[in-house]
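Re: that chain you flagged

S.,

Sorry for the slow reply, it's been a week of failed gels. I finally had a moment to sit down with the sequence you sent. For the record, here it is as I used it:
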Amino acid sequence: MGSISNHGGEGVGRRDLIKRSAALGLVAAPGMGLLSACASSGGGGQTKDKAGKKTAKNPLGVNDSAQMEFVLFDGGFGKEYAQDAVKIYEKDFPKAHVKFSATQKIQSTLQPRFNQGNPPDLIDNSGAEQMDMGVLVGKNQLADLTPLLDAPSYDDPNKKVRDTLRPGIVEMGQFDGKPVWIFYYAYTVYGVWYSQKALDSLGTEYPKTWDEMLQVCEKAKKKGMAGWTYAGKYPYYLPFSLYPMIGKVGGREVLDAIDNLEPNAWQHPAVKACFEAYYELYKKGYILKGTPGLDHIQSQTAWAKGEALFIPNGSWVENESANVIPKDFDLAVSAPSGIDASDKLPFGTIWASGGEPFIVPAKAANAEGGMEQLRIMLSEASSKNFTAKVKSLTAYNGGTTGITLTPGLKSGVAALKLAGSNVVNPRLQDWYVQLQKEKIGVAGLGEMMAGRLTPAEAIKKIQGFADEAAKDTTIKHYKHQ
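Prediction finished late last night. Pasting the structure tokens below so you have them in one place:
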């Protein structure tokens, strides 16, 4: 979700991930369509570079004189962390030439190159123009990253890369069976973000139930502050708190059924209860006026200025909004409020997963080089560098020793600790990008939160979208194993 990195819009870190990507820190923009053209198998292709000799220092057999091309999404995490890792690659392979570039136009820049068969060796496939992961996998456009995962880690030759990773990272990159097609570099905590200072000024704590949430929003309203805002132009940010709430209320199986495109999955009572709860925010006037017309940066800026108390987001928000968040803001994140004591899972149930998806194209000239660049990025030093510079965790299970954690990062770590095993990971945003963003997000949730659909109407509409996707034979379908 570059930030989702899996998130949407220009400049998204993200962010989006859609993201959103991303990090403790995760996609097609509205109207862009499924982007299936990016997976065209046309074009004559490029000549593969001859592999190098495998050694202890070069376990992937990188051709030490071949060019390695790396295209990064230029979003909320910036470029510096990647440029620093490139310098290590250049030091390790002094005869190699690294061609590094960063862009927000991932899909429009790289789709023609996939079509022609000459894609780069490593891509950070994130942001509003993220290429559709499901399509890329379904059309065999990606290289299996298992050789990287089974290679010795950069720091310890006795430990495989896969053994240095946070839980769930390998599984996220799988679609069917054992191959791993995507590597999510950042580790993102999704949830409800707020200023602890603002909450303290209201004399209250973070609300655990929805009645308490409404009470807090009413307190905020009386002080001239809206309860909530969100990225109105990119309402697929709403699921960052709404989906884990659905999981908390109804159990993981509800989210799995939704991911699996099962008939009537959206008709579950937990979905209905959570939609109605969010709709109350609109009905009671607790959403910042004008929110439906705001993009992610505008909504985050309004929130940082104290115009709204809560915002659904991913952990990239701390870095992406660093220039507008006051020094005494005391940024914090919480798992979503539930409905009441009847919820299936306890308070603290949160969505946390890999964000910032990196891929190595199947037709890359120097796939070994692309994987080696990722191996370098998964060293402790590179992981620490990322965390220190962008205020997000990486997929590397560690890398925080000696680093002073920023407020948001510290809060995210605490949220993960509170969640324990109650971490959910909805897969719609990487399995069915267009469905998640354009249909569920924009046409469904966005319309409901703007007051143009009732919860019942939104559920019916979204279930229709899911049923269409389930019957669409032009797209590959995935299921929880």
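What I noticed first: Confidence is low (pLDDT under 50) at residues 1-43.

Talk soon,
D.
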